[in-house]
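Repro case for the chain-ordering regression, as requested:
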Amino acid sequence: MLRIKSPQDLGAAVVFMAIGLVGVYFGRDLSFGTAARMGPGYFPIILSWIIVAIGIVVGLKALTIEGPRIEPVQLRPIVVIIAAILAFGFLINAVGLAITAVLLTILAAYARRDVKPIEAVLLGGGLAIFAIVVFVYGLSQPLPAWWGR
Amino acid sequence: MEFDFVQNLATGFTAAATLKNLGFALIGCLLGTLIGVLPGIGPIPAIAMLLPITFGLDPLSSLVMLAGIYYGAQYGGSTTSILVNIPGEAGSIVTCIDGHEMAKQGRAGAALGVAALASFFAGCVGTVFIAAFGPPLAAIAQQFNSPDYFSLMVLGLVTAVILAHGSVIKAAGMVLVGLLLGLVGTDVNSGLTRYTFGVSDLWDGIDFLPLVIGLFGITEIIRNLEQRTLPRPQFNARMRELWPSKRDFQESWRAVLRGTGLGSVLGVLPGGGAVLAAFASYTLEKKVAKDPTRFGRGAIEGVAGPESANNAAAQTSFIPLLTLGLPSNAIMAIMMGAMIIQGIQPGAAVMTKRPDLFWGMVASMWIGNLMLLVINLPLIGIWVRLLSVPYRLLYPAILLFCVIGIYSTNTNIAQLVLCAVFAVFGYILLRFGCEPAPLVLGFILGPLMEENLRRSLVISRGDPMVFIERPISATLLATTLVVILALIVLPQFRRTRKEAFQE
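-- result from build under test --
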């Protein structure tokens, strides 16, 4: 009976095999060529197969050698932080750095459980001013400061 | 030769020691230390985060500033290790052992002082080392042909994998995934796009900045937020005197010399660098000590040795990058990424075509080290106070600067999406016990490796024997084989590796 002894290794094995197979599958239209005339698919497809092979080895290891368990994923931090990054991207051109920075700071504060809203707003305001002074005026980065473009 | 050495350094100092560049070096050191001091942020995320602000400068100024950031981040990391026992990166773990013990005994000042002086001394030697061995190595590099480059990259990646944190086989997987990611975009030879999945933003390849910031900066924030108790530094270190006593000097100067020598040599090796040097130096100090039981209980040699070793190695690991154009570890990969963004392809050609740039950078390393010494000793009080800023106020700021940095380099939302994708990817991989550092090295080397493989096989008409017919390439591959065999055959080697990386 197969028993997973190292969940972490199994996870890594799945990731590696998936990446390798994606590499092989999406590389199928690229011509492989010959060694003397390497096609655009030559190197990536060889790499992909080696990655698959490593995935298999790691997978076998997961079934034979005891290893640590996977730490439970906490959704809150990762979801909120990713949302904050994307929100910045969608807001910056519409409303400018000042408002975006405040909103990002407030949103990011919710990545933790016990949020202090007033503190987050104050921090956001401070960071917005700092960011505008340093990045827009100091380093003259191409960012709209006060309103969208 | 003697004359060249002096003249080269003179060229460098004239280029680097302008008021403008000194200013950037100062800002770099300050910012680097500032970020490096923050608990849980090592040099890699620190450099990644600060990278964008150097883009607007001219090439030399930006490199001068980057070098400052690097040394600052490293020194900042040591400060945190000593004061609060939170290593920012693998290299400072060793400093934690005895450094923090000294701090607990009320000798934090002496530990910080010795760390700063040892680092400065090692930095000076490291700079001279580069100035002395850079040109001859560059001359050797000119003999290198495509097969030799390819074999050198194989050796570098294999040693990097073996010296990486955690499982060897997973690190190997990460390097290969990095190589594959490096190939995304338009193939220079056929003009065909590869693995772009119809996304036009990927035609030029995956951008370096969203990748490193996503994998290191953002993943780091998420990981810190997950800990129930946020890295909340606590220290009761009394800062009575910063200057080490005469006895401290007597006890540590030999360790500094040994650490510097060891670090200078280990830094040059492919896959080597600051982390390896620090570990090796600590082990060496423990071996040569009259009373090894003192280690772990506040032995000053345990701070002086590793601190000088990691700083010496931090300097000399620039040698392979500047002479061969090949980064030997993840930090150098980031430096290389920054140079390429500046339009400089690192390699021996830089030394001959842009001597001001090459020697300017070498000179700036020394200037950076001097500045660190000058600013850190008086400013230590400020850095200490910074440590007590709670993480809940820090991470929104770090996040904001990361996204501004990414967005302002080419004002494209796709970059932020890419960054988010890599943050999630890096997070998942960390959950499965895969460290991201080898991936970055692979990512930078991917296109270079393919190009050199292609050229080699074109020369040999497809005959793979070309890699063992050329003496340089054959030697490098033989070394690779020896390294791999050592790992498989020698259980002792494996054990040492395991011990060294235990946290």
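Ordering looks correct now. The mean pLDDT of chain B is 80.
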